[in-house]
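Proteins fold reproducibly. Next comes an illustrative record:
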Amino acid sequence: MKKTKLLAGLLVIAGILEVLLVVNKTTIVIEKGIVLYRTLFWACTAVCLLLLAAVLIASAAAAAKRRKETLRQQEAEKARREDDMAQRAAAADLSVKKKLDASAIRQILGKEQAGRWNLLDGEIAACMVQLDRMDQYQARLKELLALNDALSLKDTEDVLDQVEQYLCKNMRKAINYLNILDPESPEDAKAARKKLQDCAAENEDSLKRTQEFLIALADFLNQQGDGTGEIDLLDVYKNTILETIRE
């Protein structure tokens, strides 16, 4: 930009000089001769043409640079928007489009417990304890399979993962109600308490069945050593759990 302005300034000066030459042509010719006048005129004209070409080239280069910078800024803005969208999507802990994260659910419940819905401390705490129990059941299953080298029963971990998702989905429903209800309203507070209690009751039933399933799995592994283990009974427990959470 500075270079273009400088060249444009020089072009203006050269143009003024050429105009002065034309205006004072008669005087210059009489005093200095026609040869000198023509030399000065064409030299000034050549300088003007060169400066004009330089200005045009510099202007085109500056325009190209501005377009490139504008494009870069647009691409950067687009990337920023896409990044923001990705971050918002990642932060959407209750999204129905992805697997729910039990730790994120626990964190949301903790914030509600310490914030707007501290009056439902007990009900929220009960739900969070259920998530802790689910974590314990999953850890115990992993250890049980590892200790017994039961790789053929690895699919049982998927069963517990599905139970955990069932628990999280129930809690998501309760959390959504907490978001729209007003803790200052006695009626809303009563409704929120009922939603949390219903959630805990449904989850408690699934946790009980999960514990029974783990005991059945331990029985199966113990009986395998005696040659009496029956996979059918284990499948019954597994299918019962899956059918319950799919209803």
Remarks:
- Confidence is low (pLDDT under 50) at residues 86-90.
- The first helix runs from residue 2 to 23.
- The CA atoms of residues 59 and 203 lie 71 Å apart.
